[in-house]
Amino acid sequence: MTAYLVKRLIAGLATLVAASIVVFGVLEVVPGDPARLMLGMNASAETVQVLRDQMGLDQPLAVRYLDWASGMLALDFGKSYTYSVPVLELVSERLVVSLPLALIALALSTLIAIPVGIFSAARRGQTADTISMGAAQIGVAVPNFWFALLLIYVFAVWLRLVPAGGFPGWESGFWPALKSLLLPAIALALPQAAILARVTRSAMLDVMSEDYIRTARAKGMPRRHVLWRHALRNAMIPVVTIMGLQFTFLLAGTIIIENVFYLPGLGRLIFQAITQRDLIVVESVVMLLVAAVVLVNFLVDLSYAAIDPRLRARQ
Amino acid sequence: MMMPVAAPPQETWRTFASRALRNRSFVVGLLITLLVAAMAALSFVWTPYDVTRLVVGDRMLPPSASHLFGTDHFGRDVLSMIMVGSRNSIAVAFVAVGIGMGIGVPLGCWAAARGGIVDEVLMRFNDLVFAFPALLSAIMITAIFGPGAVNAIIAIGIFNIPVFARVARAGALAIWPREFILAARAAGKGKARITTEHILPNIANLLLVQGTIQFALGILAEAGLSYLGLGVQPPMPSWGRMLFDAQTRMMVAPYLALFPGFAIVFTVLGLNLLGDGISDIIDPKLRRRQ
């Protein structure tokens, strides 16, 4: 078990290092001089050269990579070219929007999808199953940003229950801030919930056809008990795997959704940074997101062990 | 009583077709997909109105008999724009699937055939690509190298490669230990020849199912990119761009946001149903459970 987790941990760290090389390399070939960008088109060649020296842009590639990578380890991401503030500051300002958004969406999607999946599996072939799986089939096909537009129209324009966009900041109070994250979170969660419900249903059906389920039923265990105690736990492995994958989708989804709702989150930050060629911000945010993906994958591996005692016992 | 040992009867084309036609997902999915494809094909020769002509007097007309889906802020007919937009969506998603299959399948087959270090390196490389949220990277690629259909195709296509590599490898690994492969090896066939003659035909079904899934995801991704202004560029209509333009006019003309969205959902739904249907038809384990 420990050996397995250590192996996964090393694999995750190796992925991070490889990813950092890829990100650094890709942004290296991008046209445009950051120093020129910061100073504007009117700056003289000498001024640009001075800044290039200050920023260490003329150093060899490997030196700059090591500088950048070791800086990140010390949480020093450098300074934004366009905002002239430390990237860490920018990122943490935005993280208080994006992280709650992604977490609410993940919670919503899980709370909807798993009960619906179980319910559907328990009533396989009946009307309730047909309806919920039909709805899931449509949910999978709905682009989250279009669903967001529909939500805005119904709840913001028509019913005026929530703001159509923007974020008042947590300092304006918990409820107003949460209210402006509600529609974006629902828009993000629904398509993911549809996928997760389908996976949960089919995982449950797979497990329900196992011999030990029949044995449990045969020895007189109530159906409900079998469903929740035996079937659900065994069906959780594929479900948790998909949830891990969905976290990646949620992160990427926030980029579009934050643009729909004009939320000042990480997604909008990276989108603006890309269009303004603020490469140091792009590098940092991408690395942060990749690190989040690697971390979540590791948590998924950990949860396998929590779900399946056989994995814990195996050396 | 002794049962004669015989090979399972080969399913005839007719029984297969009748089984396919009894599968509701497959039939509905196929019909929707064909309808969308027909709409895209028709748009090359005929659309109700010319999508490049701006008619200022006809701006933002609600749906009516002369403009079924209404007109946009330039007075263009929305139905015509959706028809032309469909061919962009289809083209981008189709070529992106082609890139994913064309590179991913050979890589996956190679990894399965060689095993060992080749397999290990390729699969770790796969993991690396999976660590990048695909849409984020697609946004980066299109934003850095310039927005447009070609870069959107490349961006979506790159992230199809590891998907197909993984499916092809898993499928091929399941086929390699089979007896008919052993027979082929005994007959002196090399790994490359076995892969093309025996492995590929046997994993074609899996690849077809994955292909429809990736096609649907490609359409969603293209819509997302063009919503952000990174896909097909105006004046060429695209579904995502139409939704972006509709957003600011939602108070006045909510129907503008409705029809392009329906077009996306309809197309993706059709492809997903088709994929579900195909995998039901070809997977006997699932078939029993129906």
Automatic annotation (TrEMBL), chain A:
Family to which the UniProt record says this protein belongs: Belongs to the binding-protein-dependent transport system permease family.
Protein name: ABC transporter permease
A Pfam family annotated for this UniProt entry: BPD_transp_1
Upper lineage: Bacteria, Pseudomonadati, Pseudomonadota, Alphaproteobacteria, Hyphomicrobiales
Gene Ontology cellular component terms for the protein in this record: plasma membrane
A GO MF label: dipeptide transmembrane transporter activity
InterPro entries with a match to the protein in the record: BPD_transp_1_N, MetI-like, MetI-like_sf
Superkingdom of origin: Bacteria
Membrane topology category: Multi-pass membrane protein
Main subcellular localisation: membrane
Keywords: Cell membrane, Membrane, Transmembrane, Transmembrane helix, Transport
Segments passing through the bilayer: 9-30, 95-119, 140-161, 181-199, 231-257, 285-307
